[in-house]
Design a protein that fits this description.
- The radius of gyration is 27 Å and the shape is elongated.
- Strand 15 and strand 16 form a beta hairpin.
- The longest helix is centred in the N-terminal third of the chain and has 23 residues.
- The mean pLDDT is 96.
- The protein starts with a strand and ends in a 20-residue tail after the last helix.
- The protein has 2 domains: 100 residues, Nucleic acid-binding proteins (OB fold (Dihydrolipoamide Acetyltransferase, E2P), Beta Barrel); 324 residues, BirA Bifunctional Protein, domain 2 (2-Layer Sandwich).
- The strands form 3 sheets. Strands 7-11-12-17-16-15-14-13 form an 8-stranded mixed beta sheet, sandwiched between helices. It has a 5-stranded mixed beta barrel with strand order 2-3-4-6-5.
- The chain has 13 helices and 17 strands.
- Helix 3 packs across helix 7, helix 3 packs across helix 13 and helix 6 crosses helix 8.
- By secondary structure, it is of the alpha+beta class.
- Bound molecules: 4-amino-1,4-dioxobutan-2-aminium adenosine-5'-monophosphate (4AD) and magnesium ion.
């Protein structure tokens, strides 16, 4: 029997003796003087290739096989045998090879040499064919699978919150507007746009977060999560910001901040454990090529407890630590990257959950503490990447929430439906947002967030 199997499958010793069909792309071809060729074949199922041995008995050996170059696509039929070579358990002896597509070696940009990540960003449609981007894609997939498994096992309901919205969840005004108004015509007439004529009868935007809608479902169904793309029009050209990124946002009725922190810690550890267990080969690659501490970091974190520290305690610690920071710390200001790094990389050397931030630097929906100065916010900070989770206990008291909106220059009338959740059967509740790309960056050690999402959107970049 001949079976179509993946390269990953064919590389396992259990496959020895099987008659198989493999389909993929040639990474390299080497010809031996003895009249046969070695092809390294990859189909994306694993980092490692399989070695295919093609002899001159193949009818297209001289005409085609000896012309195969990196990037060509083929179907190989043959038998999996034990490999005498070092570093691989198996190899495939081809009985036939069909060439589907050639890749002109004069023009195909992915030749043997290593390319910089900057260069690969200019060929984002081809970079999935490289080792690094294949490995990132597999780890990212594993992380998403693990996220869904975790929440499903914990009894959460997966809800789909809208991508187009009229509310600014973070109240920061960093939204992309969605419109069908003719901007060119408007510019010619010089008159201000009339949004009652727009598609949604009002100004509408791409969502910055599914939280507000997730709260509506949590306040009926208990524990829910939304997981989808979110958009931010902040003009930050950093290695940690994207204009389009994926966020998983759990929201839980009857959860207070401590339970929220416990959940975040358990979720992260579960994901790290799954990646270590399921992506061994890819993680070894990241450890060798990208970040020599990648594996050790994950293993350590799974076994440790995250440090929990109030914002005020963190400010005291940073003020007293004797470190020279570019930006001095002051109570009431947000932490800078250098402060986050000091806490996670130098002082505690582990993830840190900071909580109870000043009310002035956090969004309206976070629950006000009795001190009147701080809110029940929590940020999870990790070494190298900094903040990967932002969340809070939500303000469930109607009057306090309205007051907080006004204080931040928002009109409570615009949020009437959100306030209804406090008018009818309000409950203490909490949630957080975990940025998928920051998480994958942290796991793999990849330095730039643009290299952990298939097609990054950043200021000036949306070609592919
Ligand atoms: O801290 P943020 O802004 O929180 C929220 O949006 C809440 N509404 C979430 C909630 O409570 N349901 O964003 C959450 C996380 C950040 O910690 C970060 O990991 C990621 O989203 N994030 C970004 N990732 C990439 N590019 C950006 N521009 C990001 N902005 C936030
Ligand atoms: Mg945040």
């Amino acid at each position: 029997m001949v079976e179509k199997i993946s390269v990953a499958e064919a590389r396992k010793p259990e496959s020895i003796g099987r008659q198989v069909i493999l389909q993929g792309w040639v990474r390299t071809r080497r010809d031996s003087k003895a009249g046969f060729s070695f092809l390294e074949l990859n189909d994306g199922s694993s980092l490692g290739n399989i070695q295919v041995i093609a002899g001159q008995d193949l009818d297209n050996y001289q005409t085609e096989i000896k012309r195969l170059t990196a990037g060509s696509s083929v179907t190989v039929r043959g038998e999996v045998r034990q490999s005498p070579g070092r570093g691989q358990a198996t190899e495939v002896h081809a009985t036939s090879i069909t060439v589907h597509g050639w890749a002109d070696s004069e023009r195909y940009p992915l030749q043997k040499k290593r390319h910089s990540f900057e260069f690969l960003r200019t060929i984002a449609h081809l970079r999935p064919r490289t080792n690094t981007f294949g490995a990132v894609a597999r780890v990212r997939n594993c992380v998403c699978h693990s996220i869904h498994q975790f929440f499903q096992e914990e009894g959460f309901l997966y809800v789909h919150t809208p991508i187009i919205t009229a509310s600014d969840c973070e109240g920061a005004g960093e939204m992309f507007q969605v419109t069908t108004l003719d901007l060119g015509k408007l510019a010619q007439t010089g008159s201000p746009p009339d949004f009652s004529l727009d598609f949604f009868d009002r100004p509408s935007y791409l969502t910055v977060s599914g939280q507000l809608e997730a709260e509506a479902f949590a306040c009926a169904l208990g524990k829910v999560y939304t997981f989808g793309p979110t958009f931010r029009a902040e003009n930050s050209n950093t290695s940690r910001h994207l204009a389009e990124f994926w966020m998983v946002e759990p929201e839980m009725a009857f959860f207070e901040l401590d339970q929220n922190m416990d959940l975040a810690e358990r979720l992260l550890k579960r994901i790290f454990q799954d990646v270590l267990a399921r992506c061994g080969e890819d993680m070894k690659f990241f450890n060798q090529r990208i970040d020599p501490t990648a594996l050790e970091t994950l293993e350590q974190i799974v076994a440790s407890r995250f440090v929990r520290l109030s914002y005020t305690e963190a400010m005291d610690l940073l003020g007293r630590c004797g470190e020279r920071f570019e930006f001095p710390t002051r109570w009431g200001c947000d932490l800078q990257a250098e402060h986050e790094r000091y806490l996670t990389e130098k002082h505690f050397r582990c993830p840190v959950i900071l909580f109870d931030y000043p009310r002035s630097i956090k969004p309206f929906y976070m629950r006000l503490n009795d001190d009147g100065r701080t809110v029940r916010a929590m940020d999870v900070l990790v070494p190298k990447v900094g903040e990967i989770i932002g969340g809070s206990q939500r303000e469930e008291r109607l009057e306090v929430l309205e007051e907080r909106m006004r204080e931040q220059g928002l009109n409570p009338d615009d949020y009437w439906w959100y306030l209804d959740l406090r008018r009818y059967g309000t409950v203490p509740h909490s949630g957080f947002g975990l940025g998928l790309e920051r998480l994958v960056q942290f796991i793999t050690g990849m330095g730039n967030i643009r290299d952990v999402i298939p097609f990054p959107r950043t200021p000036g970049n949306a070609e592919f």
